[in-house]
């Protein structure tokens, strides 16, 4: 039984290892009931890659009913970053109270697109006759006017570094979410019928982040840069490694111990001891 369990867990290792790389979360919610969002959430597209989800959502007949479609891109975002947010933050409250929503923790990235939700935003604005607006923390205050018609707002948040972990990453994520919450609140004051799409994208290296244009979050991330040993700079205990350690400690080592104990308890039926009553002289005379 133990050997079967060990074989089964070993077979799961490739699946666990491949469940996390090249994936990112996708969240979407609407302030009013959205047929487009509900349809995509219940369809097979939600089980595929990010490009298929974006196409299914943007091509839906009712997507243009929203006064504003807000596309938020957050490079390097992981599902664990969203779990670290406070339940009282704007994102958590918006998801819990949204009449229509989509929550996907691990969506496979498409190598053809950096972020299909952002790349196809221009197509969506032309299809709906909406005004396309770009925004980020490095830009001036976002100016919106409902009299100008429908809007497609693309928001780019500062990237989260791939090697950044621990309290510094959590602090940076909280700062990004706080700024995003205030901007979403301003947009929702202008447009009552909003659809928000919040997605991650492949992370960037430290060099790429430093070479990008400065933003209001640069000083925050500089102050929160990881200091200390290797455990604060790198994530050593990955899910795959933790599973391997558990298999070795609780299955492989006990099996080896039981096998060695069984082998050491085996006794040979032959013995070199001379039996009682044996006489070499009598043996010769026979």
From TrEMBL:
Keywords: Cell wall biogenesis/degradation, Endoplasmic reticulum, Membrane, Signal, Transmembrane, Transmembrane helix. One of its GO terms (cellular component) is endoplasmic reticulum membrane. It is a single-pass type I membrane protein. This is Protein BIG1. It is found in: Endoplasmic reticulum membrane. It comes from Polyporus arcularius HHB13444. It comes from the Eukaryota. The keyword Endoplasmic reticulum applies. The chain crosses the membrane at residues 241-263. Residues 1-19 form the signal peptide. InterPro entries: Big1. Belongs to the BIG1 family. One of its GO terms (biological process) is cell wall organization.
């Amino acid at each position: 039984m133990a050997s079967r369990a060990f074989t089964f867990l070993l077979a799961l290792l490739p699946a666990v290892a491949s469940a996390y790389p090249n994936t990112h979360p996708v969240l979407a919610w609407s302030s009013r009931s959205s047929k487009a969002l509900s349809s995509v959430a219940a369809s097979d597209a939600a089980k595929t890659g990010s490009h298929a989800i974006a196409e299914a959502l943007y091509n839906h007949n009712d997507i243009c009913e929203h006064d504003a479609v807000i596309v938020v891109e957050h490079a390097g975002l992981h599902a664990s970053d969203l779990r670290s947010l406070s339940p009282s933050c704007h994102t958590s409250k918006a998801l819990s109270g949204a009449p229509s929503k989509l929550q996907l923790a691990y969506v496979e990235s498409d190598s053809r697109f950096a972020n299909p939700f952002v790349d196809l935003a221009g197509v969506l604005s032309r299809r709906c006759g909406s005004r396309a607006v770009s925004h980020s923390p490095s830009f001036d205050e976002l100016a919106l006017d409902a009299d100008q018609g429908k809007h497609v707002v693309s928001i780019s948040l500062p990237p989260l570094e791939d090697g950044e972990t621990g309290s510094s990453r959590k602090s940076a994520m909280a700062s990004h979410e706080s700024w995003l919450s205030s901007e979403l609140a301003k947009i929702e004051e202008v447009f009552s019928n909003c659809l928000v799409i919040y997605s991650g994208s492949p992370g960037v290296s430290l060099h790429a982040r430093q070479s990008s244009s400065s933003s209001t979050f640069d000083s925050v991330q500089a102050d929160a840069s990881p200091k200390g040993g290797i455990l604060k700079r790198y994530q050593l205990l990955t899910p795959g490694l933790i599973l391997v350690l558990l298999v070795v400690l609780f299955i492989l080592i006990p099996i080896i111990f039981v096998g060695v104990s069984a082998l050491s308890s085996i006794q040979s039926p032959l013995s070199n001891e001379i039996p009682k009553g044996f006489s070499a002289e009598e043996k010769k005379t026979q």
